[in-house]
Amino acid sequence: MNTIQHLSTEAPSVLGGHRLLKSSSCSYFVTTAHGFLLARRMLSGISQPEKYRRILVNSYNRKQSNSSNTTVKTSTKLPSVDHLTPSDAPSVSNAEGREDAASSSQWKERKDDGVDVRAGFSSGKDKKPALLTDSFEYFAFLRRLKRTAEKLLSSFPLAIAELAIIGALCAVGTLIEQGQSREFYLQKYSEDWAFGLFNGEWVLNLCLDHVYTAPYFLGLLALLAASLIACTSSRQIPLVKIARRWRFVNSGASISKLDFHETLPHARLADLAVLLAGDKYQVFMRGPSLYAFKGLAGRFAPIGVHAALLLIMGGATYSAIGGYHGTIMVPQGLNFMVGEAMYPAGFLSQPPDSFDTEVHINKFTIETYPNGEVSQFRTDLSLFNLRGQEVSRKVISVNDPLRYGGFTMYQTDWGISTIQIHVDGEGPFNLVAAPLQTGDNKLFGTFLPIGDNGLAGAKGISMLARDLQSVVIYDSNGAFAGVRRSGSEKPITVDGVTIIIDDIIGSTGLEMKLDPGVPIVYAGFAALMLTTVLSYLCHLQVWALQVDDSLVVGAKSNRNRAEFAEDLGKLLNFVPEIVRDRSMENIAPIISSTNEELSMQGTSAKMDNESSRS
Amino acid sequence: MIYLYVEQIFVYISFLILFLVTLLNLINFFFEIDKINHFSNNGMKFAFLCTTGFLTTRFFQTQHLPLGNLYESLMFLSWGFSFLYLISNVKNKKRLSAPVLATSALLVHAFAVLSLPHKMRESMSLVPALQSQWLMMHVSTTLISYATLLFGSLLAIVLLSIFHGEIKRYCVGNLTNNFEFRHKNYPLISKNFPKQIITESFSYSLFLNSRKCQLIHLLDKWTYQAISLGFSFLTIGIISGAVWANEAWGSYWSWEPKETWALITWLIYAIYLHIRINKKWMGKGSAMAASMGFFLVWICFLGVNLLGVGLHNYGWLI
């Protein structure tokens, strides 16, 4: 009997009371830090609740007493998540429930005073001395300007329209081939295309040949960036501030205004608190009201998405105006200076010292699969500094570039520079090869003149090569003469001349880039990947109020409302209904569970039943 | 040669089983017979295993993930659809996503097996540009994102086509107890004010429980979940592609047709997610955005390859 009475007076202390804590596995408490702190407080004994009761009583009588300034300050401090300590959210036993009606109005007043930031702001403004009115008005004007700009830019239809138009322009850029010569467009889109409404002239005038660098496209991207900034600062950040500020609700009316609300008759707040804490909510209780939330990251993540997009755009802009790039085709065995091959991309480009290195191509090879297809291109590079010392040596291949001094060298292309032959035992002669076909199927050719007919009527032997392995030889009349592999030392006699193909010397196509914006863009990429995944977390908030015997529960979520309603409904099914046994009304209530039994509720009920029988 | 036979066996068996499963699901959709559920689930599991078998044989044959050409990509996409089928099977038994997913898996599989010329089905060795670790991550995440986005968009198309005129009345936003919004449509309820909480929710539940409303609600919920998952994967896929391009060629974005269309797809699904937040446009507007996304994904996946230009034309139909 004693234990039951102990339970009834102590029961509403948060999360179920001493007995439950000692008997259960305490898993509910350790899931939340707050729960842990409350558990610690509860276990430490009975003296601490007294202290908190005193603080509450003082704050209730705030209007009357002016002496307890410190306690008033702590209780009127704006409650926020990171300042949460056990002293801020004390539990009040039901014995003081009768003070609820009197205190609720005071709580509301306190809430209004504390929460109204704007009022505090304006009162602060009025106190400014007269000297600063001019600059003050200037700042006010700026603030008003900023606010109208924000309101314009963060408008929802504008954002959707921006995204849609950028998408449409991107699509146009894929339909019309980009970056070709003027004649190409005039010829391809001739007058009778689309009934004369659309022709090559239109393409060129509307900058459709370079859509992605056209001024209107870049302007749209800048507008999108401005909209992102405006939306984040004017809509998302205030929402986060409001969401982080937890507020206890003290009237059933405001709870019923929420998206999801229910009334549970004969239920206890503490039971709901336990269930919510078990479902990974952070639970706070003050008096008869409860506030719980979960998934606060879901509020921050959309801001993170916008910030990541801005980072990416900023980094890309920096790359576009502050980088260097260059392409060069170097025959094997020759050198080039890095700085000579690089061209600045924009006005912010600063050449680094490493541009003074000399690059020497030691060897260029093409590896093939057994079936003859190309498997990899490899270039053996040496980098020498101004003093002639070798500072770097690496064999680069297609997915494996060379990084040195801020710039990167990629293997992107290849060609044939010369074909080395012995003619009639003399040589070796280097015949320069010219590209006859470029692109995927390369074809290089060279020409060995025979006889002395001068330039106009030069006749000779043609040699064609598709790769670094073999050469196809044609005679002076264009007839096929034979195929020789380089390095095979097998002579071929064409038109009375004996030729031995020594070697086919390739040239490597290198692309060099210096991109200062890459770290920024990579950071933006990582942030975007992370925040896109995180922003699917729902920020769920639950308010509950104990009104006499029943519990009014309301909830709100910032996305995915319907499923949240279902889940919360299922959770509410677990809240036990307290049935008062009429015959034992004055002695003690008996707790029975509805629907399914939670282990915690089960053990507590069992223990109560056992102790009541004893 | 043994690889070839094993592959063919896997492919044809999975094709047959997918065909049967699709038939069963469509029959089940119209006449609800319980046994069919059981058969179709087991059948799909078997088809999933066969497709996985095909992909693993390709892996052993070529020593790289089977994602090199169009044939393998399509089989991977079909695998993705059957995987989604099995996942949605875990969540709830009675569902609308089953016929949609089974049909998609079958159609993609059929296209790969029946329409591609034999030469394109051979496993080819990778060109130098594809010999990278990034291949696995970029292509696989992008293909999985295509599968989930296509699934979500198909559900949105279903929603639009079935409930063309009525979405606004039963609108998705209506499912919450949003006071003012509801009162615009049902002025008769506005008499009851917040004091009578219980009666209000009771009268509201009359509408909530109507079968049409439930169906709209379910379709919208599944669309949202599928598209949000696909959107995350698409983001990761695009970004990994950009980083790979930077490692291989020095520029993370070169406005290439495939890249650009992936970005356009990303934009349309971003539009979908944003419309879904707006109370005025959600419901019908978001379903329209998601439906458009369906076509954009197909253009991005297949249409760009048919153009024949750019770096991604490894699998164009000649």
TrEMBL record, chain A:
Source taxon at top rank: Eukaryota
UniProt-annotated location(s): Membrane
Keyword Transmembrane helix: yes
Disordered: region residues: 63-111
Pfam families from the UniProt entry: ResB
Domain ResB-like: start-end pairs: 158-420, 452-568
Membrane-crossing segments per the record: 152-176, 216-237, 520-537
Biased composition (Low complexity): 65-77
Keywords recorded for this protein, A-Z: Cytochrome c-type biogenesis, Membrane, Transmembrane, Transmembrane helix
Biased composition (Basic and acidic residues): 96-111
Coiled-coil portions: none
Protein name per its UniProtKB record: ResB-like domain-containing protein
UniProtKB/TrEMBL annotation, chain B:
Chief location of this protein within or outside the cell: membrane
GO molecular function, one term: heme binding
Xref: InterPro entries: Cyt_c_assembly, Cyt_c_biogenesis_CcsA, Cyt_c_biogenesis_CcsA/CcmC
Compartments where located: Membrane
Transmembrane segments: 12-31, 67-86, 98-116, 136-160, 222-245, 260-277, 289-311
Pfam families given in the database record: Cytochrom_C_asm (PF01578)
Bilayer topology term: Multi-pass membrane protein
GO CC term (a single one): plasma membrane
Keywords linked to the UniProt accession: Cytochrome c-type biogenesis, Membrane, Transmembrane, Transmembrane helix
Annotated protein name in UniProt: Cytochrome c assembly protein domain-containing protein
Organism: Ceratopteris richardii
